[in-house]
Design goal:
Blueprint lengths: L6 H15 L10 H4 L2 H12 L9 H18 L10 H11 L6 H6 L2 E6 L12 E6 L16 H12 L8 E5 L5 H8 L5 E6 L2 H13 L8 E5 L22 E5 L8 H14 L4 E7 L3 H13 L3 E5 L20 E7 L2
Parallel strand pairs: 3-4, 3-6, 4-5, 6-7
Antiparallel strand pairs: 1-2, 7-9, 8-9
């Protein structure tokens, strides 16, 4: 079907489908000239609403998008004798309308499948690289642990790593505050990391790692694992007295670790433990700057502890230029390299 649509139509189709599968709230709907095309409508159905779609967004989100899509298709029709609305899309809408669904507020707080397209990654073995996670994509930070969803800083850090894969290739990686595991999975699934250790201080978040590893075909992988790590607590080895089984760490990654100033002292304490174990390790942090005053506490703390902080210039793509993953370009995200000297 897609071979019958134009290059511009395919571009709009790809963008819309990627946004939909990421459960994006503000979708860029295709233009009328494409929406009234039979082949275009069938492509939307097969990629987003057919039974072949393995990991679908929550039903209420599907209903909201499909209702808006059908309204736009109907408005685009110029000649009802020659053009029409896909029967498959109409049948899908009928099923959703007859289904008992949770409220919009409840649905927003529930976990669902979210698929992030990795458009900045040069495809090698996978022509459409992506990461699927089970997360609460639209949950508010105040509603509970921030580890329930992937935040802008993580997506931006992922784009940077995709654009500079040599940073990860063959290296042993530790991620702090992994949350959904997006960065760790990216490093293990696509960036050829030698080993990845995803960590978080929340028990429920750590327990969810296995689900997200499975969704990305990493359930049997020996080069990625998850464990609990609470900042400010001594690094202990469990059954083996050596932390991380004595495995060397080349690079530490973290996204959105500094949004709460109360987290900075224990975070810096963990930095100190890591530098003691691995004096040459580099720490790469991505921080969304919601307040310059709040962010300034982090480099100040690094300086007081004798650590060197260097910022990396890597701008966020403007929202209209993004092809996946999609995230707000309103607040800047700083990328910082921290070293012992």
């Amino acid at each position: 079907m897609e071979s019958q649509i134009s290059v511009d139509a395919r571009h709009q189709l790809d963008r819309f489908c990627r946004q939909y599968l990421q459960v994006t709230l503000g979708l860029d709907y295709p233009t009328e000239e494409h929406l009234r095309n039979d082949a275009f409508q069938q492509s939307i159905y097969s990629r987003l609403f057919s039974d072949d779609v393995q990991y679908t967004p929550p039903p209420r989100y599907q209903l909201r998008v499909l209702k808006e899509l059908m309204k736009r298709i109907e408005a685009s029709i110029q000649d009802w004798d020659e053009q029409g609305i896909s029967d498959d899309l109409m049948n899908c809408l009928a099923v959703l309308l007859s289904t008992s669904l949770p409220s919009e507020e409840t649905s927003a707080q529930q976990k669902a499948y979210v698929t992030y397209s990795l458009s900045s990654l040069t495809p090698q073995f996978d022509p459409n690289p992506s990461i699927t996670l089970h997360e609460a994509r639209n949950i508010l930070a105040a509603a509970g642990t921030t580890g329930l969803r992937t935040w802008e800083a993580g997506l931006h850090l992922g784009n940077y790593l995709c654009s500079n894969p040599e940073i990860i290739r063959g290296k042993s990686i530790l991620e702090l505050g992994s949350g959904t595991g997006y960065i760790s999975i990216l490093c293990a699934k696509y960036l050829e990391a030698g080993h990845v250790l995803a960590t978080d201080g929340d028990d429920d978040v750590v327990a969810s790692f296995s689900t997200n590893f499975y969704l990305n075909g990493l359930q049997e992988a020996s080069h990625i694992e998850g464990k609990e790590l609470k900042w400010g607590h001594a690094l202990t080895g469990g059954e083996d007295p050596r932390w991380n089984l004595g495995r060397h760490i080349d690079l530490v990654l973290g996204a959105d670790l500094t949004y709460d100033p109360r987290n900075i002292p224990p975070l810096l304490s963990t930095f100190g433990d890591l530098f003691e174990l691995y004096p040459d390790v580099k720490i790469l942090i991505a921080a969304t700057v919601r307040s310059e005053e709040t962010f300034a506490k982090f480099p100040d703390a690094c300086k007081r502890n004798g650590y060197r902080l260097r910022e990396i210039n890597f701008e966020i793509l403007k929202a209209e230029e993004q092809q996946g993953p999609f995230f707000s370009d309103m607040a800047p995200v700083r990328l910082c390299i921290i070293t012992k000297t």
